[in-house]
């Protein structure tokens, strides 16, 4: 999936070897004035990414499995279900990566004091985050997903460099990218360590509230950092600061095969055409609207068997 200014392009290869392209309109609240306000836009984009991502996953799952009833398969995942899944996922994320490290670090308060315990809490949080990524990266079913992740990054690198959108051209670029979601999450974890160091550990209610309520602000600051780093890729200081994020992407990406690169190219090319207002070949259906009824037809594009 490649996001444009107001629409996202989703490309999926079905079992028949065809690349199916789908358009997904980004909610209006995520493309309005709020997106231009520093720090506010980070929270907006974070919410948009979760919502659009869930809808894109539900679409791609149905298409990649070549469901007999694509419309029914997509509609079976309702907005209520997606919302519930997001609430559960966010709740588990906060509980595992923010609250659990605090309660474990309480064992060290008497020996290391408040600041020392907060530092240990931060270390536990980072360890849990990196360990989680390492664990899922070892799952066989995730290997192909990580290949597509790397293909997306490589295609974006090629587009930013002004190179041709061909498999040969895209393959020259690395699968890691400084504006990756992995970089964003790692930045959130590191900023959380710095922020929470100076917050008192009593009463517990204050600690829990701080871990929950400050998280959107930390995420907003992390987005501003990622945005700045992406605009200054050749700055030595920025390259040093983003080095851990690029290193972590060794676990969240894999070198893609040619088929995966072709899918990424198709998604990126389609997203660029949408931004430019250029009619897209063999794709005449309106974009899918989130939270609205929309046509379910797809326009498959047959990819040559070779090349």
Account of the protein in words:
The chain is 63% helix and 7% strand. The chain has 307 residues and is an alpha+beta fold. It is globular and about 65 Å long. Mean pLDDT is 82; it is low at 68-76 and 282-307.
Number of helices: 11
Tell me the strand percentage band: 5-15%
Number of strands: 5
Helix content range: 55-70%
Straight-line N-to-C gap? 22 Å
Nearest-integer average pLDDT: 82
Low-confidence runs: 68-76, 282-307
Q: Topology, pairings included?
A:
Layout: E1 2-3, E2 7-13, E3 18-25, H1 40-64, H2 70-75, H3 79-105, H4 109-137, H5 140-161, H6 167-170, H7 181-196, H8 204-213, H9 215-231, H10 236-252, H11 258-276, E4 288-289, E5 299-302
Parallel strand pairs: 3-4
Antiparallel strand pairs: 1-2, 2-3, 3-5
Descriptive tags:
307 residues; alpha+beta; 7% strand; disordered C terminus
Tell me briefly what this model is.
It contains eleven helices and five strands; from the N terminus they run βββαααααααααααββ. The chain has 307 residues and is α+β, with helices and mostly antiparallel strands.
